[in-house]
């Protein structure tokens, strides 16, 4: 039994430690400043009630990006000093964000202990490495991100902090081996358990999906499959699930070795950054080598986002979650039926909620039993099995749908991803959709652009004059606002959640400043047009949306404010 003491370290506040919807994200060079991480962690402990800290069990792990191992040791020593009873760490410090949520909700220790929260070390889909991004966020006892009431308290404490507690003489724990390390401090025993990163999550997935039907699909010589982890933490689960459990060929896995710099790539599963998968699926700019697989998927750095592809066919995130909702009852054995999306929800007479960006807003709805399937356009999809979006869950959901659709014709012509999507459009209509991301824009210029858009909303006649001047093919704007969300469970209000322009024909433009970058500002422009005429649902998205795109750029004066003639990423 190793003894340790508690030290009180004097410190001073840092500017800008306000966590956003996805926690605190900064460049590594910011986090490695003396006391920077420690200040934020102590502020987090201070913001929690005493029973959620003293004697508690906490999870500390993440996506394995650069600086994670050092951060785990620092947080562990601070947890010991603040009276935490035990820390659970995924093997090698790896746990996907959805797996952390699952561990909080499902895992029971050998002594009956349950986790009451977690520090998740991730900057999600942002790049990693010494010159790139690091991040940290706190998740609560329901497995979901800390609500605004807690994150606001954390920020308040970061502005006044004068000291933090740390067990400086606690030795570093070996996180490369499964096992328990036992220590004793002034308040009694303190343990650190390193456990297998995948077991709890796989057990949960097997309770949701019919693995045998998916295995039958993957064993068919007619069905080919490809999964790209982009060197993120999904690689810690890919072989165990897709190869060992479901029988896929190991050659179907791309970039499934987790790396602290994500192999020098950008671990964001979209058509711009998942280049290798996009090329293999026949969607690259050059001719693909050989026949593309029937199904392809990718996950981001912390495995909470996903991209779904068919052979030479891209599935938009909005279509993906709607199709999962429309097919869930038939194709996914344990999927409940209490929620779906938009036109699917209306068609199936189910409840539908529109919430601001940030998965934590789904948490209250799920905890109250009001929501089962949820998604966001930025490649996030999930259900109420956990309180985070879940990339691998979405992939398994799609494989389940494909397995169900092909259960009687694996010897004949397969029902493909494209077939499923086109059938969905024929039933529900098609939402043409694209998103333009302008990354690392000057923050001042971005705020001026948003203020300009708000001011414009005072005169819809002026708005329509600009819109019609850009393209006469665009419908009239009938409403403009800043989206405000009132939580139907606790009544809390979240303001300034995006500037919306709604058109007479159901089209819409949304402008939003994203909080997921580590420096500068990211302006996101969302463009959507609904089409229910069967003769018009087969057009190319960029052609169908060209008039709306032109109207959006003129309305926002995007180039004038930002100096950008084109977006960084088009989804």
UniProtKB/TrEMBL annotation:
The first-level EC class reads isomerase
Q: What is its EC number?
A: 5.4.2.2
Q: Which domain of life is it from?
A: Eukaryota
Which Gene Ontology terms describe the biological processes this protein takes part in? glucose metabolic process
Q: Which residues cross the membrane?
A: none
> What keywords tag this UniProt record?
Carbohydrate metabolism, Glucose metabolism, Isomerase, Magnesium, Metal-binding, Phosphoprotein
Record-linked Pfam families: PGM1_C_vert_fung, PGM_PMM_I, PGM_PMM_II, PGM_PMM_III
Q: Which reaction does it catalyse?
A: alpha-D-glucose 1-phosphate = alpha-D-glucose 6-phosphate; alpha-D-glucose 1,6-bisphosphate + L-seryl-[protein] = O-phospho-L-seryl-[protein] + alpha-D-glucose 6-phosphate; O-phospho-L-seryl-[protein] + alpha-D-glucose 1-phosphate = alpha-D-glucose 1,6-bisphosphate + L-seryl-[protein]
- Where is it found, in Gene Ontology cellular component terms? cytosol
InterPro entries for this protein:
A-D-PHexomutase_a/b/a-I (IPR005844), A-D-PHexomutase_a/b/a-I/II/III (IPR016055), A-D-PHexomutase_a/b/a-II (IPR005845), A-D-PHexomutase_a/b/a-III (IPR005846), A-D-PHexomutase_C_sf (IPR036900), A-D-PHexomutase_CS (IPR016066), Alpha-D-phosphohexomutase_SF (IPR005841), PGM (IPR045244)
Name the cofactor(s): Mg(2+)
Q: Name all Alpha-D-phosphohexomutase alpha/beta/alpha domain ranges.
A: 17-164, 200-309, 325-408
Q: Which GO terms describe its molecular function?
A: magnesium ion binding; phosphoglucomutase activity
Functional summary from the UniProt entry? Catalyzes the reversible isomerization of alpha-D-glucose 1-phosphate to alpha-D-glucose 6-phosphate. The mechanism proceeds via the intermediate compound alpha-D-glucose 1,6-bisphosphate. This enzyme participates in both the breakdown and synthesis of glucose.
Family named by the database record: Belongs to the phosphohexose mutase family.
PANTHER family on file = PHOSPHOGLUCOMUTASE, PHOSPHOHEXOMUTASE FAMILY MEMBER
Query: What does the annotation say about its assembly with partners?
Result: Monomer.
Q: Please identify the protein, giving its name as recorded.
A: phosphoglucomutase (alpha-D-glucose-1,6-bisphosphate-dependent)
User: What is the source species?
Assistant: Trifolium subterraneum
């Amino acid at each position: 039994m190793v003894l340790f003491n508690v030290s009180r370290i004097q410190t001073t506040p840092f500017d800008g430690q306000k966590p956003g919807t996805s926690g605190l994200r900064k460049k590594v060079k910011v986090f490695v400043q003396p006391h920077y991480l420690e200040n934020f962690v102590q502020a987090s402990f201070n913001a929690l009630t005493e029973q959620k800290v003293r004697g508690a069990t906490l999870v500390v792990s993440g996506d394995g990006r650069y600086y994670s191992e050092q951060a785990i040791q620092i947080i562990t020593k601070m947890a010991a000093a603040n009276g935490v009873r035990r820390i659970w760490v995924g093997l090698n410090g790896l746990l996907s964000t959805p797996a952390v949520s699952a561990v909080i909700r499902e895992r029971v220790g050998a002594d009956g202990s349950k986790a009451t929260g977690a520090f998740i070390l991730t900057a999600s889909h942002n790049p990693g490495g010494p010159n790139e991004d690091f991040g940290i966020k706190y998740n609560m006892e329901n497995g979901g991100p800390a609500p605004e009431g807690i994150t606001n308290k954390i920020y308040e404490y970061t502005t006044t902090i004068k000291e933090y507690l740390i067990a400086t003489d606690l030795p570093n724990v070996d996180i490369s081996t499964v096992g328990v390390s036992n220590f004793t401090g002034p308040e009694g025993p303190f343990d650190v358990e390193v456990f297998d990163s995948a077991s709890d999550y796989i057990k949960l997935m097997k309770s949701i999906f019919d693995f045998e039907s998916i295995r039958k699909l993957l064993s068919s010589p007619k069905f080919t499959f490809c999964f790209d982890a982009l060197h993120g933490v999904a690689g810690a689960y890919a072989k165990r699930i897709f190869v060992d459990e479901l029988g896929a060929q190991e050659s179907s896995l791309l970039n499934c070795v987790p790396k602290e710099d994500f192999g020098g790539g950008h671990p964001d599963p979209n058509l711009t950054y998942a280049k290798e998968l996009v090329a293999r699926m026949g969607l690259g700019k050059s001719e693909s080598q050989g026949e593309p697989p029937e199904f392809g998927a990718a996950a981001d750095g912390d495995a909470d986002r996903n991209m779904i592809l068919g052979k030479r066919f891209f599935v938009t995130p909005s279509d993906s979650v709607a199709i999962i909702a429309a097919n869930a009852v038939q194709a996914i054995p344990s999927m409940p039926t209490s929620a779906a999306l938009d036109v699917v929800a209306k068609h199936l007479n189910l409840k539908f909620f529109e919430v601001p960006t940030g998965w934590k807003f789904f948490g209250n709805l799920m905890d109250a039993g009001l929501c089962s399937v949820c998604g966001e356009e930025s490649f996030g999809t999930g259900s109420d099995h956990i309180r985070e979006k879940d990339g691998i869950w979405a992939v398994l959901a799609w494989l389940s749908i494909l397995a169900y659709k092909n259960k009687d014709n694996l010897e004949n012509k397969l029902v493909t991803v494209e077939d499923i999507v086109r059938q969905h459009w024929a039933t529900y209509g098609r939402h043409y959709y694209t998103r333009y991301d302008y990354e690392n824009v000057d923050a001042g210029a971005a705020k001026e652009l948003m203020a300009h858009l708000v001011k414009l909303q005072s005169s819809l006649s002026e708005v329509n004059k600009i819109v019609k001047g850009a393209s006469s093919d665009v419908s009239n704007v009938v409403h403009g606002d800043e989206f405000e969300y009132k939580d139907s469970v606790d009544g809390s209000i979240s303001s300034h959640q995006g500037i919306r322009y709604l058109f007479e024909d159901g089209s819409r433009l949304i402008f939003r400043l994203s909080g997921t970058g580590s420096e500068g500002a990211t302006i996101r422009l969302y463009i959507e047009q609904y089409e229910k005429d069967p003769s018009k649902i087969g057009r190319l998205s960029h052609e169908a949306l060209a008039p709306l795109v032109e109207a959006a750029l003129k309305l926002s004066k995007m180039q004038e404010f930002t100096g950008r003639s084109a977006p960084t990423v088009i989804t």
